[in-house]
Protein: alcohol dehydrogenase
Amino acid sequence: MAAPAPARRTARCARWEGVGGPFTVVESPLPGQLRTGEVLVEIEMATVCGSDLHSVTGGRPAPSPGVLGHEQVGRVVEVGPDEPQCLDGTPVAPGLRVVWSVTASCQSCTRCRADLPQKCLHLRKYGHETWDEQSPLRGGFATHCLLLPGTAIAAVDEGLPAEVAAPISCATATVAAVVGAAGPIGPGTRALVNGAGMLGQTAVAMLAASGAEVLAIDPHARRREQALRFGAVEARPVGSAIAETDVALELSGAPDAVQSCVDSLAVGGVAVLAGSVSPGPAARLDPEQLVRGLHRVVGVHNYHPRDLRTAVEFSTENHRARPFAELVAGRYRLDELESAFAAARRGEVPRQAIVP
Structure:
């Protein structure tokens, strides 16, 4: 384990001022004595997620001002009383390299007790919190983040590139949840992945690693070519004919893609929808087709802590087999966030990296 970096007296945050507003780099004192269950992490790298981009462009409601960013990797600086453990039982201690969940749950409400902590009634979300002058370190676009009690924390190997480790907190863990919701995947499973962005490429790789025969659908030729490198047996443009599939994953949010996933299911098939996080037109669902086909349609939003652990394990074991690092470009400072978002809007690479 590497030694912790020398303690800083202050932290810096890139405060987003709201739709149409700038990012302002703000200096803030580091927290004093941490409370029970809190963990202070110094951020090594963060990445600009699609939901960050949607927030900035007004495509989804987001509190402002605030600190965006929820995909990051960092190193523990300080731990509060009753120090927590990582998901694998590793004690959280200064110097440990970690990723953490998008959400923090209360662990006591009815949803938490029903094993749905990702939909906790008192949920807190990193990168989705209103600016708090007394406790501003609540997002990834900062030098530090103060983790709340109820946050799932996972240790990551020192050899895992930061470009691979940072997206684990959102993209990779979400895909782990989506693939897990699809049920057992194995050799001979016919799988459809609709949308070959960051989540889609990761899903192709995860399904292929389990032995599935994966068809990727995306409107962009470059993404289709990339999907083949991530393990798809075939990649086709939107509107192509699709044979019956056992598993259909919808990761783009496009209404037509949702419909094609549902319509593609073979007997006993399951469609897992994760891309539809904004209001849109309803998809058509034929009840007779659903009943006679023994179909399942499952929604995934946020993810369970076990999915974060699965994502870390998958990335550690597979990052050399597929070109994951190519999904992240740039190394922007906090005062260059507007340039990072401009690059993200161009969409040439799924993620832009921030190195605070």
About this structure: The chain is about 25% helix and 25% strand.
